[in-house]
Amino acid sequence: MYLSKGVRFMLLSGICFSLMNVLVKYLTNIPATEIIVFRSLISFILSAMILRRQNVSVWGNNKKLLIGRGLAGAIALTIYFYTLQRIPLATAVTLQFLAPVFTAILGIFIVKEKLSPWQFIFFLVSFAGILIIKGFDERISTELLVLGILSAFFAGLAYNIVRKLNTSEHPLVIVFYFPLVTLPLVSIYSAFHWVTPQGIEWLLLLGVGVLTQIAQYYMTRAFQEESISKVAGLKYLGIIYGLGFGYLIFDETFNFYTYVGMAVVLVGVILNVWYKTWSDKRKVATQKSE
User: InterPro entries given for it (predicted)?
Assistant: First the structure.
């Protein structure tokens, strides 16, 4: 089966994000904001170095949107890391994967992308899966559920801003603005709640930064190559990675109904991707026939 460039980029991004999740989950002794400091610092340095080597200005063109993307991403990531350290890995990932729903819905207003009524039905299916998981997993409090949904909302907002910037900015400039905005915000808080990493924790923090840099770059490329609703849903595959890593590394298990809920989420996103692909092909065929 042929996979478009945007789809391949998103799959690679998803694998890197999943490995990053494992490292964050493992760093239970380090506060979430401190992990973000290290992650952002590494991303800041790598992005600046590569942009300088390619002779591309780090400041970009549309600074207001770039700052907005950085701010939305900073809020989303801070909340996500907070929940990731407190609930099972696969559950945290599943909550975060409501982001494609918010991405597509916000896309109606921000990038003027049209959605079919069928896609809204598929989104409702995915959200129903989230409710099933919440109902049968006592480890998830209402507070953490709301925070997970809020993180997904801001992630969806950030993805749409990336889409708005797809023709005016270099992908690494968009990535660069994330740490540029995030570092000042989280560094001040972390300075008063600092926990010095020990031993292998330094290496794990480095891994978080490097994996995130790779994941962010290819996610940005994916959104620039394809329509939002087609590639955003592929991030749901991280649920499978989360289940596997959670079981093998953190000895996390779930009851039958929680697995059903996760399956329902996956069904919703797979149907959405299939429908969007079919709809695009049909549109192209119609245009050619005219």
Answer: EamA_dom, EmrE-like
Chain segment 152-179, per-residue pLDDT in tens:
999 999 989 988 887 788 888 988 998 9
Q: Do 103 and 228 meet the contact criterion of CB atoms below 8 Å apart?
A: yes
3-state secondary structure labels for all residues of 76-136: HHHHHHHHHCCCCHHHHHHHHCCHHHHHHHHHHHHCCCCCCHHHHHHHHHHHHHHHHHHHH
Instruction: Look up the pTM and report it.
Output: 0.83
Q: Residues 255-287, buried b or exposed e (16+ Cβ, 10 A)?
A: eeebbebbebbbbbbbbbbebbeebeeeeeeee
**Residue the block writes with tokens 């006592």:** 138
pLDDT, tens only, 58-89: 999 899 999 999 999 999 999 999 999 999 99
76's CB contacts (< 8 A; 6+ apart) are 99, 151, 152, 153, 154, 155, 157, 158
* Nearest-angstrom CA–CA distance, 215 and 21: 12
- Region of 137 please: left (phi>0), alpha (psi -120 to 50) or beta: beta
At residue 227, does pLDDT exceed 90? no
Question: CA-CA distances (angstroms) from residue 84 to 23, 62, 137?
Answer: 11, 32, 15
Q: In the chain, what percentage of residues exceed pLDDT 90? A: 44
